[in-house]
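seq:
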Amino acid sequence: MIIFIDKKHFFKNIFQNTNKTQMLKITALLISFLFLIWLNLSIFGYFHIKNNSKKKTILKVGVNNNSAPNVFKVLEQNEGKKAKKAVNSEYIAGFDIDLINNIADKLDLELEFHVFDFAGLLNALEQETIDIAVASLSITDKRKEKYDVSKAYMQTGTSIVVRNKRFDDLLDNLRKQQEPNNNKEIKINYNEFCQKLKDLEKEKPIKFITFLNTVAIPVIEKIKSDTNKEKEYVIKNNELTSSSACFTDILQGKSDMFITDNCLARWACEINQDLTYFDVHSDNLEHSTCPQGLGIFFPKKNDEDRRIPNLQEKINAALVKLDLIKKDEKGEFQDIIDLKKKNHELKETSKEEVSSEDKNKIEEIEKKVKKRLDEVFNENKETIELPTKKIFIQAQKTIPSYLKGLKTTLILAIDSLIVGFLLAIICTLIKNIKLDYHKNNFLIVAIIKILNTSINALFFVLKGIPVAAQAMLIYYSITFLFKGNFNPLHAGIFVLILNSLASITMILMQNIKFLDKGQIEAAHSLGMNQKQVFLSIVFPQTLKRSVPFILQQLITNIKDSSFFAIIGVAELSWKAQSNMGATLNPILPFVMISCFYLIIISMTGFLSKMLEKNIKLKK
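struct:
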């Protein structure tokens, strides 16, 4: 028996029941359609008030918002605060944000902030999609080979973060040597610190920890070599992926000491009262986690050839006006590192007294940096105090940021499913063309074979390469080839469209195999061509069988969207990482997004079961 389904009335046939039920379903479809339009408009910016002023040149600034207190995410824009809105709609604040804002004012530039993870930030700099990068970036010889860099605008100290009550005797002893009522800024000489390590644990070595891609790694190796001469007093645990993971490691007792810069150490101890830090000072730069200071990085090229000509020179000049670097008698720029090196060389090579002028310059820079840093802590008390509040208050405060991420996740999943489904129909039609009907036309046969081979090759590649690798490959390839701004959200949608296309095509092809072949042969015998058979018989029946599986693909898209945080898409996982960087809490953010994922996946699964049940009843 041939089952004819008029394509013009296909959806009517699916939803036909009672008038009331039919109206409810039509209303639900209309609401879904309007919701999808609103979702796209809100994400792609039509509801945002944009500053279209063309009076100032735009300076594109790349930042990493997991670099507190230099750059961190704030939960909302507060009146009187200095938070800036990035292009992904996040509000960011910190020492570096204030600094760049001051520089932009001096140079009469408009700022445009782009948020990346650490690897994405440096990659964007190499591909010149941003003008500068700033996010507590340490200047190193290796980085200076790949990028241009400003003079150092600050030098952070080396600090050790420990859990309270873990080294009480050491801390009490150090506090006695400090100024009264100074329980946070505790200092110890490097050589004395190495000796203390030998005295601390006679049976078990002290376990040090730090995170990946940090200058602290060689410092730990130096401590090991200077301490472990007689026996193993110090060992280094494997580096972790983030500073918040290191703090958690310390709190859980898996590691004993976390070595980092004193700015981050102070931020962590302000947030978590179970942590304490002390500074380790030395004149030897090998003992410093910031031996060459922090700088503003530029793409490697002639300063005159930049998008904003002489930008590096202009920023150094602005840093002079902000009293963060100085000029010598020849008019050359001197940062705090240059001044300290000059003084150290004078001490080592001659008996000359260190210039009082240079001493004053160093003190002025350090006072200026301390003042600016104190302002950051004072102006962001709400962010600092949030982790100390009850967990329900923390969840309530962070929910709005996750709702924005949820919208992006839904856009990624739904838009890619719809476009992928439409393309899958075309691919299914191509793969169902019978070559026997075109055997006399060699050109059409060749084209169909090429298309089929291309489709199969594409599906093979998509199924063999992980989604995260696809995202990085497509995003970085496009930005490299075209040397311009490319929204990572578009890259994410494109990747999911391709994967939805492959999966849905396979689903449709698999369900076509289960159709009664007799009705197709009968349709051909009645004089129907391939197009008529496909649109009137094959496709409608296949679609009815495939609806539950297509909704399962939506669930897959929702889960896969979490991979796009790696290229800077501000979906749920990205929001969790941003909040983790500000609060240094690695647990609550991921508990929150897990709840969101469970809710939307459960709703999608319920809808899938309802449709499947409805289709079975129609049969």
